[in-house]
Amino acid sequence: MKSNIALIGFMGAGKTAVGKVLAEQLDKEFIELDALIEQKAGKAISDIFREHGEIYFRELEIAAVKEVAHRQNTIIACGGGAALNKINIDRLSEQGTVVYLVAKPDAILRRTSGDKTKRPLLESKDKLAQIKEMLEYRKPYYERAADIRINTSSHSIEEVANQIIKRLTKNESDSDKK
Ligand code: S3P
Questions:
Q1: Are 68 and 79 in contact (CB under 8 A)?
Q2: Could you give the dihedral angle defined by the CA atoms of residues 58, 103, 115 and 29, in that order, rounded to the nearest 10 degrees?
Q3: Whose CA is closest to atom 16 on ligand 1?
Q4: CA 31, CA 22: separation in Å to the nearest integer?
Q5: Is a pLDDT exceeding 70 seen at residue 33?
Q6: pLDDT number for residue 129
Q7: Torsion of CA 140, 170, 71, 73, to 10 degrees
Q8: Phi first, then psi: what are they for 80, rounded to 5°?
Q9: Which among 36, 62, 59, 45 has a CA at the least distance from the CA of 11?
Q10: Atom of ligand 1 nearest to the CA of 118
Q11: Which residue has the CA at smallest separation from atom 10 of ligand 1?
Q12: Strand 96-102 to strand 74-77: parallel, antiparallel, or no bridges (unpaired)?
């Protein structure tokens, strides 16, 4: 049985907040990929983007996924772009269930406003239009990568975590029947 959970989805979908609650409730380790990348690079995500560009950041992200994907009993909160690289999803799926946290543009806007250090990709003047455009492009990647999809827009962090636990239990009993 796969003992990891990889949380994917757009910026502001709640991957980190939900991941922490899940880790506590399921008694698993919690890892936030962006924090690991920052720790390894010795600088903030926004500085990595500014000084080295997005492609370099994606390379660090691939290396971070490779480092953590083989662990056991770990909740991995991915950055919003990690699911766009198939190699990341392949690695995360080996030991983990991939859970897509779905969020609507207005909820994303609300949850990401005011945070400039981690989200250099969300800096245009019309942020809502930018979110809609990026989400439209990314949706198929998230959908394709997901084993489970959970709607987060009007739910609390705890409700989302409980939904995930319910769905995981159902998935497991379904696969027992096969
Ligand atoms: C990104 C999302 C960010 C961070 C980086 C790139 C993206 O993480 O990895 O700014 O491409 O969507 P969060 O999804 O945790 O905000």
A1: no
A2: -60
A3: 11
A4: 11
A5: yes
A6: 95
A7: 140
A8: -60, -20
A9: 45
A10: 10
A11: 119
A12: unpaired
> Phi and psi of 4, rounded to 5°?
-100, 160
Provide the pairing of β-strand 29-32 with 4-8: unpaired
In the predicted model, is pLDDT for residue 68 greater than 90?
Answer: yes
- Token pair in block for residue 82: 């990690």
**Could you tell which of 8, 11, 65, 85 is best to mutate to test the pocket of ligand 1, judged by most ligand atoms within 8 Å of the CB?**
11
CA atoms within 13 A on the CB side of 92: 32
Cα gap 61→81, rounded to integer Å: 9
CB 72 within 8 A of CB 31: no
Query: Considering the entire predicted model, what is its pTM?
Result: 0.95
